[in-house]
Amino acid sequence: MKKLLLLLPLALLCGCAREPSPVSALALDRAGNGCRLTAELVRQDTPEDAAVPSCLAAQGDSFTDALHALEGLLPGELYLSHAQVLLLSEQAAEDDLTPLAEYLCRDNDIRLNLRCAVVRGGAASDLLENDEEIYALSDLLDRAAETGTLPDMPLYRVTEALETDGTAILPSLSLDRFGQTAPSGTAVFTEGKLSCFLDGGMIGGERFA
């Protein structure tokens, strides 16, 4: 009976147990000596219903371990080719980003134009779960890149920069005083790790208002 009760909400989350679960965004946070990966799933119970985001999280010793744990929670496979954003918390970004970026570039299911961003002053999962519309985060990052408000750094450019000299710049986001997701400066990576923000803000400091 307990197993049946566990499977029911998962089946409802996916809409159809036999269908793959499209992922629109991912968030990576540090959890103890490992990490927690949160996936924003595209939920659409029937063709007539509007698509809405629904989040699911799992932990692991590494990104790949957490990803496999996520896949184990769902009756269908994760469909990663729709993922457009990867959010990193400040703590997760303090680890060398190069191996993860290279892994994602090698994965045929991951878009090379996946947008990567650092979340300031809070968990990456909190900002992801604040997203009320599918692809709202990617739209925000696309607009900010077009206007020059934030750096235009899709996954393939981030990887190229890190492999060249370990230095890269990524856009940064935070929740403003109204609880809305907003641009929050530029994150600087040195030797593959988050070192500072271009506005002079310290890692772990207060987020933008």
UniProtKB/TrEMBL annotation:
Residues 23-174 form the Spore germination protein N-terminal domain. It comes from the Bacteria. It holds the Pfam family Spore_GerAC_N. This is Spore germination protein N-terminal domain-containing protein. It comes from Agathobaculum hominis.
